[in-house]
Fold each of these.
Amino acid sequence: MPKLTINGKEAELPAGTNLIEAAKALGTEIPHFCYHPGLSVAGNCRMCLVEIEKAPKLQIACNTAVGEGMVVLTDSAKVKKARAGVMEFLLLNHPIDCPICDCAGECYLQDYYMEHDGHASRLEEGKNKKQKAQPIGPHVMLDKERCVLCSRCVRFTDEVSKTHELGIFGRGSTEEIGLAPGATLDNAYSGNVVDLCPVGALTDREFRFKSRPWFLKETATLCGGCSMGCNVILNTNTNPYNKVGQERAYRLFPRENKAVNQYWMCDEGRYTYKAVDAGRRHRTLVSGAVAEPDAALAAAAAALKAAAGPKTAFLLHPSLTNEELAAFRWLAQALGVTQVSLGADLLERGQGDGYLIQADKFPNGRGAKDQGFTLDGGAELLKAAKTGGLDALLVVGHSLADAECAELRAKLKALVGAHSQGFGGEARFDASLALAHAAEQDGSWTNVQGRVQRLNRALAPLGDSQPGWALAGALGALLGHAAPAGDAQSWFAALAANTPAFAGLSLDGLGAQGAMPAAAAAQA
Amino acid sequence: MTEHPKVLTKNFGDPAALGYEGYVANGGYLGLKKALTMQPQEIIDLVKAGNLRGRGGAGFPAAVKWGFLGKTDGPKYLCVNADEGEPGTVKDGPLMENDPHQLIEGVVIACYALGIKSAYIYIRGEFYKAIRIVQAAVDQAYAQGVIGKSVMGSAFQLDIAVHPGAGAYICGEETGLLSSLEGKKGMPKLKPPFPALKGLYGAPTIVNNVETLACVPHILTLGADAWNALGTEKNGGSKLYCVSGHVMKPGYYETRHSITLRELIYDVAGGLKPGRTLKAVVPGGSSSPILTADEIDVRMDFDSLGKAGSMLGSAAVIVMDDSTSMVRALDNLMHFYSHESCGQCTPCREGTAWLHKIMSRIVDGRGEAADIDRMLDITGNMVGNTICVLADAAAFPVQSYIKKFRPEFEEYIQGHKRLSLLGHREEPATVGAH
Amino acid sequence: MSVVTPELRAKFDQVVSRYPADQRQSAVIPLLHLFQESHGGSLTTEHQQAVADYLGVPMSKVHEVTTFYTMYSLKPRGKQHISICGTLPCALCGCKDIVEAVQEKLGVAPEQVTADGQFSFQVVECLAQCHQGPVMQVGDTVYGNLTPESAKAVIDALGKKQ
């Protein structure tokens, strides 16, 4: 492996590593716009110019691989002048839209200006005018004036989504990013170009004008839109004056996981953050009326007690966390309930696209399978419930239609539910408990690859909602059974102890990139 | 009157030479015949001994460039750069229109020496006539077995195709040419890797100028010594020069490579117009640093001009007499470079446009004294920091015009401020059209 | 109705055969020229889409080419489109007067078409005819050593052979 020196520090790195990554490994950031590890090298912004001993000209770090004996300076006077020069050129025609631009606060131009520039404008003439605020797709807004022509978005639509909607048209300083004639940026991954854009040229239409990024907290967590489990950052609000309506969750965007989603996520998943706040079942109900949580729990426990174990069934859901599933499995065992299914057969399967989007639209079918749950059988359970085969049914997560719930109510002695989203039939339930959203709890999901990945709690559970394992524990307690665990970490530890698919792992030990347990890898 | 060599222009004015028979009758394709009896390396060594310098602008020794070609069993390419576009340059168009087989012969010899089986002649799109004539000559060459499955009956095979450009100066940059040939915008590629290793379609590629290749048959037939005798040390052969601007006999001329700029202007191109004195000369195309009237006793070869602080470039001499406004001349060039910048990289895209905006403002009478040093500073942030040398090509005129004519710039700025205060508009001397 | 006539298709096939089979994109520029020449000097979206479809190249890439190169026009041009060189050597020889003369003669601004559809003009960069500047080019013919009068005479002559 080549040994080189960067700013006096020695490093040995794999051959082929470019100098931006090499410097990053040493803790030094080389500023750049057009470089992105998930895209081909363009080398056009010239911001990453560095000084290399024996090279007559400055070299771009993104296109220079580490070489044996290379001596690199990333902060010499020459480099600083070149960088300030590039910044001046980029800002020359850039509209100072900061007060109205969504990108302010997470803008490369702003950040690099403060760090590498700081000079006043020397332009005496007018700036180039281009079209602003042009919606180019259902999710993306384009402002051509703000664009620094780094070509990241074009390379994305060519190399990743392979849908080729975008191009750079024209020549010279009047050239523009734009849609190919007749095209709309409506591919399934269009939102990624907003993440990629280093400035405010491409912005998210949903997020438009909603918040300044410095008011938003970042939590590393997972997307629950399908079984891929793309790694994401969830932005939640921290500013009491920053609220539009009652939203707390503002935005989802992908974070890097080379084994799962690389740097990307699909649009459908991107907007699942809305479910954190919208349409929540955040108050508990008793027979359809809002009730105190204790009263609802008591009603639920009483209903379950009235029915005998073998004639009780649990209809769980493949979006529950591993910990929630483990807790409900414990509760079922404690109550002598043997009919437990995930009800995956009741849920609509989507279309996979051979890339990130999975046909299975729920995040933890694999985790349930690994715990030994029956994935299908939901229809059977419901049929049994409607024909007198069951006395009691606990429904977790499934949004059943009102007509169906009426039928169930008519036949069952006890109908109890725990949901995070409200739905038509919930008024028919004896008790409707409030389930916390995945964004409101620590826990884990196992994705389609068998990778166990970490959910991090970004928000306090809304209203009276609680994680499923807390509800299971509370129900168990009321029915005379003490749960073996009281938090996500301990429930996971219990899984690790008794389930091969989780052996050797711990919740806190999963890290930011998740882990592939050996047993799961063998099954995969 | 000095007699000038007629080697490259031997067939000019003889319409018969446009055809294969006529070309052969005048001694054509003897170089190729000879080359086919030699080993490829012998040919390369011969061209090296002939001190053939790249005549597209860089003056890089052709044989050394050839030596860089990557070894592979896969495809390799020769691309002929016929995208003549450096302002002031007229030599490749006439070479193609008057003696297309000379170019073809050079291409075949080069391809044989390099083991290349596929060549493209990239001709700028505006050269309709050259495209037609070269295509006809290529067709004849196929018909006569000079190219195709068996070159002159040998085991060597070669295909040549003509490919048009569509109007972009940047396609004269060798990797811009390759991008264009690949069917894309003519945007230069990042180097490294260099075309010799990774060029057209990612394969090893040599890009050579038309005139460079046109020289090759003559090095074969004349031999290195006789060829060198027409030039200077390290700059072998006769050379085509174009003289334009304020001269009595603008035109393209073949002379010895050792001719001086003074001789070119006064002896060959007829000198200045009556009553005029020489003010400035561009020696090697608009990108070359400008020379003043007392700097013209310099030999017009790559090394001599390099030592004089300029460059031979594309051997395009632009003569400016005392009626010329250097300010307006520079404005004209800044319009050119900003219009031709491909736009790919920041310093060139924004820098050329900014320089043009400043020059326009100055020409328009709204310049400030500080603009002069500001432009120099801008060029300082462009040179060396870009993907290709178009930025340098824009910067050198700015730097050299200001260095050698600063007082004129200062007076222009001052004078126009005064005039505009008085409400006058000075009628400009020589101006651009923009 | 396809814009690719059988005649054009034959030419397209011939052009494509010049390049390796897996490099059809190389033919974008020559094919766009063929379309433009067959369409009175300008291109439409249909032409670009036809090139894209024929070669298996994204429309975005074809449109990038169309908007990058000076010779292509997406706006209508006159039957005779005049390109007048405005770069330094021609400027030194007085091309500004030629531009003014042409503009006066035609009565339209650059890139506009005369009312009878016959003429349009634009100022271009170096045409590599510096030895005979100032010049203008109409189709494949270059007119050099122009004066305002000779430029107007050229237009008269061109106008007569309609």
Amino acid sequence: MEIQSHSNSWPLWEVFIRARQGLDHKHAGSLHAADAQMAIENARDVYTRRNEGISIWVVESKHIHASDPSESGSLYDPANDKVYRHPSFYHLPDELKNI
Amino acid sequence: MDLLSDYIIHLADNALILGHRNSEWTGHGPILEQDIALSNIALDLVGQSRNFYQLAAGRLSELTPGLTISEDDLAYLRDVNEFRNFVLLEQDNGDWAKTILRQFYFSIYQYLLYKELLASKYPAIAAISEKSIKETRYHVKWSSEWVVRLGDGTPESHRRMLDARQELNPWISELFIPVDFDYEAAATGAGILPDTLQEEWFQRVNHVFESAGLPLLSFEKKNMHILSGKKGVHSEHLGYLLEEMQFLQRAYPGSNW
């Protein structure tokens, strides 16, 4: 089908939207576009039409490198028994309220 | 009939008719993202038309005591020969290239027009222009990029742009030919004469055509057609468009939801 071949020939992009000043860009989703400019405009039309954002980042999905789920044991499990990495062993004076 | 109301209705009709044409693509766009993009533009245009219709309806109601005219009356209960939109805008969608080129031609026109109307002596027209010009600036950008993408794309996309250019050519000159309500609008300071936009319009169009590798346009008076949408003399397409757009209000008068 022609439509199918079109979407296949346009690369996939990941879209990151900053909702407000001072917040981080958050992953909003992905879309197809022929180039970066078109990706930003598509993102504007697809992800910010209800006032969701003030800034858009796009990156071609192929440039994102992800961790391998099958390695999650060696990557994440060692952190399980190292509670001392949390800053929860300090005794704070009662006068300190906002830490 | 009040000429200034005609002028405002002309502005509204342009936006509504092109908005409706674009909305016909909803669900049929070449790719989901562009389907949404064009639907957004359709909504922008219908929104602009609504502002102008409300303005015209208020004015007409004031001028004719005992008669209340609503925005819906103007959009849904007028006939073909009462519409004042450019013939260009009612042309059928054709392929993506034709839709893009029609949008491109009109968006540049509308942008140049709104830029002038920001200084309109009719405060409501200036206000609507100020609100709308941001949307229109984006329509210009979006359609310009598509013109380049298609014109400078594959041999097929280039050929389709050339075909679209050929098909739309006869309807360009109407954009710049003033009619009675233009003279009235210019005389009162509410609007401007459209021929004052002609030079810059061609410059901007040709600037993009150059990057797109498309042959440049020049004003061809010999293409001037006997039709004039601004005088209510339309092509056959508008009747079919209105039949669908107005169906609900015609079949079930006054219905709403």
